[in-house]
Amino acid sequence: MILVRLDITNEIGTGHFRRMNVLANYLLPIEFLFLIITDDEENAILRKSQVFFTNRKNEFNDIKTILNDYDIDILIFDLLHYEKEYLKQIKKMTDKKIVSFHEHNDNSKNSDLAINYNLFEGFENNQDPQFLSGYKYIIFNDEIENYRSYKKEYVFVSFGGSDPTKLTLSFIDNIANKLLDTQFLIHVGNFNTLNINKIFLQNNVQIIYRPENLFKHMAGAKLAIIAGGNMMYEFMYLKTPSIVIAHNEHQEIFALNASKYNCVEYFGKFDDINYDELKNLIQNKISNYSNKCEISIDNQGKERIKQSLLKVILA
Predict the structure, then answer these.
(1) In Å, how far are 49, 161, 164, 301, 307 from 22, measured between CA atoms?
(2) Which top CATH class is 2-140+299-314?
């Protein structure tokens, strides 16, 4: 049995939870439990997994309680921010094997296995067998395989499950409602606080609100406007041209590295957007795009992680 500790909030979004759910389903019959800090315990996305809730004050005691009540083999941590000495304290407290996912800082010295599948700087040169790095370890939901040959009809827009920098509304007002000859499909995720009932939309703009099957909508995109999270890699896998606007510095790093391999067009951070330039770029991409991505991403990341996890369990 595996215990996963992660956060899913309006600020952090849903990416960590979604990828751990995919990994849990892939590793069946191994059972996964989730210990989560969230600001929305009633959110529908949390209902299909065995979830326990905690908070910063009580999380160590809650981890101890779960370890006493369940036969846990491994602790997986998939956090955006790790406090100094956090994993060291967990290791000392539990004496359990630790697998940690990292996005923009590395705590692998306190982990039995560390994973960062993002395109961070220097990932190509990593030689540490206990640190799985780069796109070979991307976790894709196998459902994506069902939607790789859809007709391309519209510009798909999503700034993640939460959109912490409120890009969705700005994009609608400054871009989608003004490019009247272009069809836009705007995704609003589970932790996005946008009130869609108060938004004016031109006839060329449609909102999809917390859809059950997001891949179906992604697959119809002839161009994607996205942030630098998991969806960036999904569109790379679908070979869909993408323009990336980063919510934060680590997304910027991932997008810049993806653009280095000609896999996306990095436009900039959320707080430095020239919307006239963005309109011109969108129109140019729609008219003149050819896929020149130099990275070939497969759907074997889950299997590679599985084999490494089994080695940790059996060690």
Answers:
(1) 11, 16, 23, 11, 16
(2) alpha beta
Identify the CATH class of 142-288. Answer: alpha beta
Rounded CA gap, 149 and 160, in Å? Answer: 23
User: Where do the structural domains in the chain lie, given as residue ranges?
Assistant: 2-140+299-314, 142-288
Give the separation between CA 168 and CA 96, rounded to whole angstroms: 42
pLDDT by residue, tens only, the chain of 315 residues? 999 999 999 888 899 999 999 999 999 999 999 999 999 999 988 987 899 999 999 999 999 999 999 999 999 999 988 988 899 999 999 999 999 998 766 666 889 999 999 998 888 888 888 899 999 999 999 999 998 777 889 999 999 999 999 999 999 999 999 999 999 999 999 899 899 999 999 999 999 999 988 999 999 999 999 999 999 999 999 999 999 999 999 899 999 999 999 999 999 999 999 999 999 999 999 988 777 899 999 999 999 999 999 999 888
